[in-house]
Design goal:
By secondary structure, the protein is an all-alpha fold. 79% of the residues lie in helices and 0% in strands. The relative contact order is 0.11.
């Protein structure tokens, strides 16, 4: 059990680092959108990235990934307000 928890801890660390990196890029995207008077929301892009990334997820986990990723997109848009 300890080895499994250590593995989860390492994965969680990677997720946190990637989350942080993603939001740095989101901040840059916001600046670009503001400068060019673009809308925050791009529903076609959102659907495309969800579809593309679902390809990496095992079938049994797809419903959880959808919830996770939709939340991530929502947070990204919120941070651009």
């Amino acid at each position: 059990m300890q080895a499994l928890r250590a593995k989860i801890n390492e994965i969680d660390k990677e997720i946190a680092l990637l989350f942080n990196e993603r939001f740095k890029v989101v901040k840059e995207i916001k600046a670009y959108k503001v400068k060019h008077n673009l809308p925050i929301t791009d529903e076609l892009r959102e659907k495309a990235i969800i579809k593309d990334n679902l390809a990496y997820i095992d079938e049994e986990f797809k419903q959880y990934f959808l919830t996770f990723y939709k939340t991530l997109i929502s947070l990204s848009k919120e941070s651009q307000q």
